[in-house]
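[Automated response] Your request has been received and processed.

Submitted sequence:
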Amino acid sequence: MHSIAVLLRQKRKSLSESHSESIFLYFPENRGWSHQIMRGIGEAQNGGGDFGEISRAASRMKVGDSESWHTEWKALAEYVEGIGKAAESTGRKQTAMQSYFRASNYYRQADFYLDRDDPRELPTYQKHVDLFQKAGELRTPKVEPVWIPFEGRKLHGYFVRSTDSSSSKQPCVIMFGGADSTCEEVYFSSVPDAVARGMHVLLVDGPGQGYTLRFEKLYALFDYEKTVAAAIDFLTSTKSDVIDTKRIGILGRSLGGYYASRSAAMEKKVKAAVIFDAIFNVIENVYDFFPPVRRALNWDVGARNEEEAREKLSKFNLSGVAEKIECPILIVHGSEDYISSPKAADKLYNSIRHPDKTLKLYKAGHGAAAYRAESTAFVFDWLTEKLG
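Generated structure:
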């Protein structure tokens, strides 16, 4: 009991010292680990975890020991996967689906700090994908795995249908994550809110992201609009019976905020864009602003060292690009963001000439974490209005 009380005092102290409403440091001595824990807790509201399960696993970790991180998340993932298997074997499909979704996200966490040449990395990641797909198969309507042709190879993704059963064609939102996220994870952050409002969703792992990076060996591109163009072509050629191809929006989170800004400027078929965490200049606003992210960014661009990464990332810059945005755009950012600089949100907003632009600042850290439910509802209500 004494140790628990001490831990709670440390957490309260770390929160008060941060002068932020959102930066709850689960591990006061390790901001990076705390962020990853809070990321998982935030996704629990959409089935990506359970607070009690996450807290139990975190309480057993040795802070800063990546092997401990992997071990505890893997143990939790296997335990919850077992619940899913037992439920499925007796026909309890809802329980099986929910368990597989949670276990999938726990395997993603188990993979997070593994070195990319660690022999456990790909098998752990594959479990993340496989269990997500098992859960998606049990969901109604099903989550449909898709492959999007791209420059002689293919992009990994999913098509998720709206829960609106009307026969009319409905809008579609293309969603993608950031430097270290996966399209499976993006499902838990955004998809249920979109489909409940009558929008279909296409989840995409573009170059430098998730499955596409690992298995297709496609590295991150500064001109991400090529990914969005390929996604729109895919929707037009395969889903035009259910989507209105004149009402396609995009949503990007974290590094995906840069990707969405660039795509909104360069791909004119985009009718509305949401930037969940603005990034104007990747080196200035992220790489140097929050050094712990360098490991992921180096891998995303296929760089062997920081010097090579800086050279490649120098092109990830919206100067002279943001001015070309001609669709409604919403920028959501935390005023005390500690991963992507809040200055990026102001610079992006001020650079956009299109009159239909909105900057929504929350007094919070990365991704307006303390306002997740509120900010997510605001975003999808805005998208519903802009996409009709």
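Summary generated for your ticket: The first helix runs from residue 2 to 18. The CA atoms of residues 41 and 346 lie 28 Å apart.
If you did not submit this request, please reply to this message.
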